[in-house]
Amino acid sequence: MANDNIGGKMLLLAFIIIILLIICNKSQLKSGFVGGGGSVLELNPSNYDNTVNGDYLIMVKFMAPWCGYCTKIEGPWKDLAKAYEGDDSVVIAEVNADMHKELASKANVGGYPTIMTYKNGKCLGKYQGERTVPSWKAHINANK
């Protein structure tokens, strides 16, 4: 009789652990796998396809560390990510295209920085507006 009670407790514990792992995994995607919510999600070959095909709007900045224009918008891009902290319908990401040339090629990126917008797995195209937080937010809100 005591063994049945232990078995039931173990089953309940296993169920709770599985639920917590699922919750943590979803939270990890939204937080960029490192750091807290509101950080820029770093895309690489192992997470790129699943991320850009997600059921949300995602803006992806393709950049190179040596690019002056890229470094100029690095702070505002992080501010944009912070502005959407806690909003599961928007992801702000970036690809180091110098390191992951195959991803830049897949997205037809020819120069840096290039910002692409995806929604529910479909590419909406290259962002052409001003490179400011208010302009990016207006673009996101118009396409949500």
Description:
The structure is a single chain. With 144 residues, the chain is of the alpha/beta class. The protein has a single domain, classed as Glutaredoxin (3-Layer(aba) Sandwich). β4 and β5 form a beta hairpin. A five-stranded mixed beta sheet has the order 1-3-2-4-5, with helices on both faces. It is built from six helices and five strands; from the N terminus they run αβαβααβαββα. It holds the Pfam family Thioredoxin. Residues 38-144 form the Thioredoxin domain. It comes from viral metagenome. InterPro entries: PDI (IPR051063), Thioredoxin-like_sf (IPR036249), Thioredoxin_domain (IPR013766). This is Thioredoxin domain-containing protein.
Query: What is the subunit organization of this protein?
Result: single chain
Helix content: 40-55%
Extract low-pLDDT stretches. 24-36
The fraction of residues assigned to DSSP E strands is 15-25%
Specify the number of helices: 6
* Total DSSP E strands: 5
Major sheet strand order: 1-3-2-4-5
Number of domains: 1
What sequence of helices (H) and strands (E) makes up the elements? HEHEHHEHEEH
CATH topology: Glutaredoxin
CATH architecture: 3-Layer(aba) Sandwich
Q: What class, by secondary structure content?
A: alpha/beta
Q: Tell me about the biggest sheet?
A: 5 strands, mixed
**What is the molecular shape?**
elongated
Give the overall pLDDT as a whole number: 86
Distance, first to last CA: 56 Å
CATH superfamily caption: Glutaredoxin
**Rg:** 19 Å
CATH class: Alpha Beta
